[in-house]
User: Fold this.
Amino acid sequence: MSAQKSIILVTVDCLRADHVGFMGYKRPTTPFLDALAAESFVFPAAIVAGAPTYYSFPAILASRYPLALGRDVLGVAPAEPTLASVLKHAGYAAASFGAANPYISSRFGYENGFDVFRDFLHAEPEPLSNDNVTVATGDGWASRLNRSLQKLNSSLGPLSLVYDELYFQYCQRVTPPAASLDALRRFPSADVLVSEACKWLESIGDAPFFLWLHLMDPHSPYYPKEEALTLMGHDAVSPFRARYLNSYWNRSDLGPRRLARHREEVIALYDAGVRWVDVQVSRLIETLRASGRWDNSVFAFTADHGEEFLEHGGRYHPPSQLMEELIHVPLLLRVPGNEKKGVTQAPFSLIHLAPTLLDAAGLAAPAPFEGESYWPQVRQGTGYNAVAISECVAGCTNPFRPQNRLGPRVLSVRESRFKLMLQFDPPVERLYDLESDPGEQAPLAPGAQKPVRRRLLEIAREHLRRSREQRDPRTRLQARLREFQLEWKKPADKASPVAS
Ligand SMILES: [Zn+2]
Assistant:
């Protein structure tokens, strides 16, 4: 058995911190991981460096802020070092199994350093979309009647609920029936990826390895495995009902109050997705235990961003506001031979994850990594005083179109207690006290906490200055060239603007 520690990184799309048991969630989404948490470091405030997927992963894999190469650059640049390329260089076998998320495909440079890179994308990747069978676009009588009714809808008052039901029943019935939730699911479920990963692990013998799994089970549209619903204590949900709920949740013509009617049912579907991840991570770790490799492996479990369930009126995870439900994710780190210690409440930005993982495995991080290792502090259980910066481009829900990437930046600077949110166009500055207002329901008055505001603003300014001045023009150029080549190769622009 090799002395070098292997590294396993499991990232779960859309998994918010407060929906896992080891972060205090009351429903049984993660019993296996909760037990594992007893021998792991659990970070109370892991914060992503950007949201959604395409603004988060440059930090997770390449320890680089998502907009550091310019707003128009997406993904990892061709020669940019990543966790995978560093480990490859150190002699590791490296594989990635990702559940068909087009934003972390080879198109955006994520295959760098991997021997095996399976993204489960079969055709030309297209932007992700949510379920919507509600748009009657035809010219038939039903569509015309429906459009008139929709106009009337807002003035119908209590009758509008009746209209919702009738219309949706109608829409659902005109779409072809689905045999099962499995038939409706858009992404390979965690069992498929874990099976592939286990096969690969078997094939590499005793070599130290890096395994990255990206699981999409909690991602919308929410079609969980039926076994997971049962494990969560729910009755079976028919495919008809599940599609109805997903379509309802995706309606753009309803406000939060109306959407809230089905919020709990939608959350139950999402939670079952999380439970399936837990079941399959358990299976992966059993396999590693059985082959004697588990106790020589660093294991990290986290997410690329959270998910909104109307806390601030929104759904899914569009880049708009960097509220806690979107940027606060779980992070569990198990390093064999190290006793569990409490981790400080200070935010831990995922920009530091890659260098911390390398350090825990006894390897140095490459110079271009922007984050630094917190392994010494975590291992010893000492505090650190960190600030987490998150950024995204407002309204960029379809990054396949380069012109969509050039919207105004949104930036948040989060300390343990205070969080400053900055929007650049129109300029908005909001300061939250997360101690007295953890749900970020009311920003502090403009005159309140002036020294805090000044301090966080200064950090934001410094971040923007570094982002501009330390930009490596060669890395940027290489990333831009890759994009041009892809554009030239493409026969036609198939991308359509949809929520991601
Ligand atoms: Zn994502």
